[in-house]
Design goal:
- Pfam families: Gpi1.
- InterPro entries: PigQ/GPI1.
- Keywords: Membrane, Transmembrane, Transmembrane helix.
- The protein has 735 residues and is α/β, with parallel strands linked by helices.
- It folds into 2 domains: 329 residues, no CATH class; 196 residues, no CATH class.
- It is built from 26 helices and 14 strands.
- The strands form 3 sheets. The protein has a 10-stranded mixed sheet.
- Strand 9 and strand 10 form a beta hairpin.
- The radius of gyration is 40 Å and the shape is elongated.
């Protein structure tokens, strides 16, 4: 085999490796490829801990099989979590290297099994057969593995034969390495490797050190799902695109998945050793945990009760409002307010649903856990931020009510007198030197002035309730959040400018009819006719009478067109300005709703939770080699009869290439932009096209972006069921 990549955890048991001379057994995954091999080490436990924690072979096998079953299905299909091999650390000089005398192993196996006999009689009885036939087992093992480093005591030898998949076994030697300019003191050196009971020679070995992903801290990702991708400034050839579609030779997806699950596998394997704490510490931790659970129990009951009261109030308010006869009219007139209030109420009702995450994959895979945490906390963080901004807006409106009322009155007076009335009078004269039709200009001007006067009178009567309107906006912002008063303000603007919208619609109707008449008469003169079935212009023979009537109509319509166009342009500018203001406010509301506040907060505090690709950094080493750079051990094997001695010199490879596994991280824009793109994708460009087409053709102008409404349907469940749902949500939220 040409290459071997060893994915080695950097921060696991470093203190033990530095101070203890022992043999560790490796747990993880083995991924064979064509011409290469990937070994992902998730955990390594000392030989003594395994013998102390697991009394028999069945318990040990159950622990490993249960750990493998908790892994994601994709990872189980690629490789199974099992024992990879062993690793020798800080051996004495007499036993330096991995190959030691067979007699030492035999004596050690008898001592260890004697210790097992004191603690578990069943285990000693099960291992008695191996003690009786120790010479035969060891000879068979030596013949099979061709090396005495695989000779273990009876219990671990059985584990090796029964648990190791397809007879694969990896042996490492960890040695101090001073040449590397790093704080790492132990470098794993591959001694030998068996695949399918066959010894495999490795030409190139690459050790990749990685930080164990921990939930709430970091994880790794290939960056294929990165929200931002660089676009090529030029069009690439088809053969490049075809190469990118092909599956890469080295599939890193299962390897990254295994690394993200390594922490869960490590904890599940060492579940016995973590319980060997002192009795006093255990008692103290039990008391503290009991107090915390009592406090969390009462807190959960209070939160569930308050949420249930809010649920009852919202359901009663909706039921009373649905029985009002003007419910449908109010829903159409105040459509922005209705939509945002419905969204806010749905978010308040659905918060316990989002906090309940019982997915097993989120507990095993750190990447899934991070994504689930962001989705879980997205709803309540959105509600909290909206309420906070609404409280600031409501307090500002209440504290500056007099100033706001004076500004509103001044703005209404200016818009009515200086813009609308003065503009209509100016259009009835000679606007910008254009000579208009006097009769048509006076007719359109008088209609506009009368409509402006009637509507200004109505709003003068409504002005007495302006303080109450501002107070309603302020309290709605404090109670329901920032987006609700802004949506109410959009509906108020549309109601206050309804006369401008109606005048624009009336004049656009006249303008569009004149455009259509002129277009039809122009086709008549050309001898063409529009075919609505085939959507094209066809030739047509008109009569002389049709040409005469068309000539008589074409002249007055063409001469009246500039007068209607001037009025249409004026009111279209006013209407477009109002629509753009409402669109800006509507966009601000949508941005507030779609901003992932939880992801932003996590990006500021823990940027490692947003990886966007892997990066391998080679660790620099000195070029001068020392005697410790290559481990050469002279192995003396002596038979039991003492008649024959064989000397064999085994050279272990020098220190392999060592790299650190790091990640590139997403920027703040790359984290936020996918959420905005999901909402605004396919909306902005069609809206601009429809607005420009409507203004030029005199057709209907869109007044809203038609953004997607709340994806949450209204909730209809019982009060007791909702309380239990909130209670379970508080329990999951604590976890």
């Amino acid at each position: 085999m040409d290459r071997c990549r060893i994915w080695w955890p950097r921060q696991q048991h470093q203190s033990e490796l530095e101070s203890v001379s022992a043999r560790y057994f490796l747990f993880g995954w083995l991924f064979p490829h064509a011409g290469s091999l990937d070994i992902v080490v998730a955990a390594f436990v000392s030989e003594g801990e395994i013998l102390r924690s697991f009394p028999n072979l069945d318990t040990f096998q159950t622990a490993i099989l249960s750990s493998n079953k908790t892994m994601p299905t994709v990872l189980q299909e690629s490789a199974a979590f099992t024992i990879l091999g062993d690793c020798v650390v800080h051996l004495p000089r007499d036993f330096e290297g991995c190959c030691v005398k067979q007699k030492y192993h035999l004596l050690r196996a008898q001592v260890v099994q004697a210790e097992h006999a004191d603690t578990n009689q069943d285990s000693s009885i099960a291992l008695g057969g191996s003690l009786g036939s120790e010479d035969q087992d060891q000879s068979e093992n030596n013949g099979k593995w061709e090396c005495d480093c695989s000779v273990l005591d009876g219990f671990l030898d059985k584990c090796k034969k029964s648990v190791v998949k397809r007879g694969d076994w990896v042996h490492f030697c960890c040695k101090p390495e001073k040449s590397l300019k790093s704080n790492l003191n132990q470098i794993p050196v591959l001694h030998h490797l068996y695949l399918d009971d066959q010894k495999v020679e490795i030409n190139h070995c690459h050790v990749i050190l990685y930080d164990v992903p921990v939930a709430g801290r970091n994880h790794f990702s290939l960056g294929e799902d990165a929200p931002y991708r660089m676009k090529s400034p030029f069009k690439r050839p088809n053969w490049i695109n075809n190469l990118q579609k092909k599956r890469p030779f080295l599939d890193l997806d299962p390897i990254v998945l295994a690394i993200n699950c390594s922490n869960s596998a490590r904890l599940s394997v060492a579940w016995k050793t973590t319980n060997n704490s002192s009795a006093a510490h255990f008692l103290f931790a039990t008391v503290i945990d009991a107090l915390v659970q009592v406090a969390q129990h009462f807190t959960g009951i209070i939160l569930a009760s308050v949420s249930t009261i809010i649920y009852i109030f919202i359901q009663l308010f909706r039921k009373c409002l649905s029985h009002v006869s003007e419910h449908f009219i109010l829903q159409k007139v105040f459509r922005h307010s209705w939509k945002n209030m419905h969204l806010r109420c749905s978010q308040i009702l659905y918060w316990p649903i989002f906090l309940q995450d019982t997915s097993l994959s989120s507990y095993v895979n750190v990447e899934y856990a991070h994504r689930a945490a962001i989705q879980k906390h997205a709803l309540w963080s959105n509600i909290i931020m909206d309420l906070l901004m609404g409280f600031i807006l409501g307090a500002a409106l209440l504290l500056n009510m007099e100033t706001i009322c004076s500004w509103i009155f001044a703005l209404l007076h200016y818009m009515t007198d200086a813009v609308l009335r003065s503009g209509c009078v100016w259009l009835m004269g000679v606007p910008a030197g254009f000579k208009l039709n006097t009769e048509l200009a006076e007719l359109l001007g008088m209609i506009s002035l009368n409509a402006i006067q009637i509507y200004s009178t109505l709003w003068f009567m409504v002005g007495g309730f302006l303080r109450h309107i501002i107070q309603g906006l302020a309290f709605s912002g404090i109670i329901l959040g920032f987006t609700v008063p802004v949506s109410i303000f959009i509906d108020i603007i549309q109601l206050a400018t309804l006369h401008v919208t109606m005048l624009q619609w009336l004049i656009s109707l006249i303008y569009s009819r004149q455009i259509q008449t002129v277009t039809s008469l122009w086709r008549l003169f050309r001898g063409r006719k529009w075919n609505p079935l085939r959507q094209r212009l066809d030739s047509y023979d008109y009569t002389v009478e049709q040409h005469v009537v068309g000539s008589l109509l074409f002249t007055p319509v063409l001469l009246l067109l500039p007068t209607a166009s001037i009025f249409y342009i004026f009111f279209s500018i006013l209407s477009s300005t109002i629509i753009c203001l409402c669109i800006v406010l509507e966009t601000a509301i949508c941005i507030i709703h779609s901003t992932p506040y939880a992801a932003v907060i996590l990006w500021v505090t823990r940027r490692q939770r947003f990886p966007a690709g892997l990066m391998f950094l080679p660790m620099s080493s000195s070029s001068v080699s020392t005697d410790d750079d290559a481990l050469s051990v002279e192995y003396h094997s002596t038979s039991l009869s003492g008649e024959r001695k064989t000397d064999e010199l085994i050279h272990v490879h020098s220190v392999p290439l060592v790299s650190e596994l790091n990640c590139n991280y997403n920027t703040l824009g790359q984290v936020i932009w996918p959420h905005y793109q999901k909402v605004f994708n396919g909306i902005a460009l069609p809206f601009c096209k429809q607005l420009a087409h409507g203004i030029l053709r005199g057709t209907r102008i869109p007044t809203t972006l038609h953004l997607p409404s709340s994806p949450l349907p209204w909730m209809h469940i019982g009060i007791r069921e909702y309380w239990m749902l909130c209670r379970r949500a508080t329990k999951w939220g604590r976890n």
